[in-house]
Amino acid sequence: MNEIVAIDWRGAAPLARDEFEASIRAVGAGRYHDKHEFHKLLHGGKLQKEQVAAWALNRYCYQEAVPRKDAAFMSRVHDRELRREWIHRIHDHDGLGEEGGGIERWLVLTDALGFSRDYVTSRRGALPATKFAVEAYVRFVVEQPLVVAVASSLTELFAPSIHRERIVGMLESYDFVDDQVMAYFKRRLTQAPRDSEFALGYVLDNAKTRAEQEACVGAVRFKCDVLWAQLDALHHAYVTPGPIPPGAWRPGEANV
Question: What DSSP string runs through 226-237?
Fold first, then answer.
């Protein structure tokens, strides 16, 4: 059996800027969750309403975790300009003033799918794997060096294409969604490119060594794994199906 050896990048020359960026983008080309079978079923209109509901309920856990991980990131940042740039991510999700934010728009989706808001925000009905995956992402951002933590957000580079596909596919396929219900994804078509452009520039500028660059590429890979793991859990519980874990929402039961 051939031994698998971890590569020590400490003595390696840094990648050129364009090579580094290409390495980041290659992760999305190979591992982004638009390639998951569950998304193909979702966007192709192949799921029942209760399966779509399970996706929306579980995905709320991720939406709710995003501003928490951003707040945790900002608590570590001494650079005022970086904090000023990053704080709008929290506003995008939590809202500011009269703007309800992305979480409010997500709750419009779960409203349309028949869930009470108290049930959704309690996270009681979410799959255990979902909750473990999103909390692993928050912990990653708390523990990793700042440039690596920023790099973990770079799945946003690949998000607009999946949002466009989702908007078209779900509006065409499901009579229980409409433009208002899909408002979250339409807003992300402008927010995600803005955020990813800044984050990519920050990572390319601040990952100076080959080891730092490889850690950043690994962060994008990790984030893809977080997204993929959530869909694995959904597919196993609600499509395959596996057994649905104890405490998780079951189609047909009250959601209060």
Answer: HHHHHHHHHIII
CA atoms of 193 and 190, how far apart (whole Å): 6
Query: What pTM did the predictor assign?
Result: 0.90
Contact (CB, 8 A) for 113 and 49? yes
- Tell me what the mean pLDDT of segment 147-174 comes to: 91
- pLDDT (tens digit, 9 = 90+) per residue, 31-87? 999 989 999 999 999 999 999 999 999 999 999 999 999 999 999 999 999 999 999
* Superfamily of chain region 17-239: Heme oxygenase-like (1.20.910.10)
Instruction: Give me the long-range contacts of 29-35 (CB less than 8 A, separation at least 24).
Output: 31/221, 31/224, 31/225, 31/228, 32/155, 32/158, 32/162, 32/224, 32/227, 33/162, 33/224, 33/227, 33/228, 33/230, 33/231, 34/158, 34/161, 34/162, 34/165
